[in-house]
Amino acid sequence: MLKPFFSTIYALEAGADEAGRGCLAGPVFAAAVILPEHFISNELNDSKQVSEKQRNRLRQLIEDKAVAWQVASVSAEEIDRINILNASFMAMHMAIRDLKLVPELLLIDGNRFTPYPGINHRCFIKGDGIYMSVAAASILAKTHRDEFMKKLHTEFPEYGWDQNKGYGTLQHRRAIKEYGQTIWHRKSFKVKDQLRLDFD
């Protein structure tokens, strides 16, 4: 089971994580979650380690039981302007800012983070497999982004976003080669390099 908290020194800890950083299309999403003191879930884990059915079930549990949670996104256009790393940090900051309670400590998935004004933070590589609040943020960021990409799929079905969620699968790269990029594609990503494959 994942660890519930980093330290008993802090009354409120918020986990933060992002989803969609490596995609060719769509926004990057981030979530921040403050879990209650006695929250328990044997299923909760890094969103990549659980099935879609489990993620959706966990999303409902987290949104029902969390002391506070928030999800935010940064557009492909903004990603192109400030780069994906900064856009990921921006999305996390937006989610943290909109929490109904101010946490005393932020647990960040990854090895770096732009400090959030007035709140200490700790970074953890694969933190979504260590701390419950980070795993919960991972689940919310992933499920909200997947839901968003499925809605976009109805407008741009050629790219298979209902399945690949904007990641650079063979189907997605072939669609870019045939139809070009949409307004939802990240123009700063080196898509031409992604297309240097054998499509036969």
Features:
alpha/beta, 200 residues, 7 helices, 16% strand
Structure, described:
- The chain has 200 residues and is of the alpha/beta class.
- The chain has one domain: Nucleotidyltransferase, domain 5.
- It is built from 7 helices and 5 strands.
- The chain has a 5-stranded mixed beta sheet, sandwiched between helices.
- Helix 1 (52-65) crosses helix 4 and helix 2 (76-82) packs across helix 3 (84-97).
- It is globular, with a radius of gyration of 17 Å.
- The N and C termini lie far apart (45 Å).
Briefly summarize what is shown.
The protein has one domain (13-194): Ribonuclease H-like superfamily/Ribonuclease H (Nucleotidyltransferase, domain 5, 2-Layer Sandwich).
Helix content: 25-40%
Number of E-state strands: 5
CATH topology: Nucleotidyltransferase, domain 5
Spatial separation of the terminal alpha carbons? 45 Å
Radius of gyration: 17 Å
Tell me the name of the CATH class: Alpha Beta
Biggest sheet, in brief? Answer: 5 strands, mixed
Broad shape: globular
Sequence of strands across the biggest β-sheet: 3-2-1-4-5
**Mean pLDDT over all positions:** 93
CATH-defined architecture = 2-Layer Sandwich
**Fraction of residues in β-strands:** 15-25%
How many domain units? 1
- How many DSSP helices? 7
Sequence stretches where pLDDT stays below 50 over 5 or more residues: 193-200
According to CATH, the homologous superfamily is Ribonuclease H-like superfamily/Ribonuclease H
Structural class comes to alpha/beta
Helix/strand order, N-terminal first: EEHEHHEEHHHH
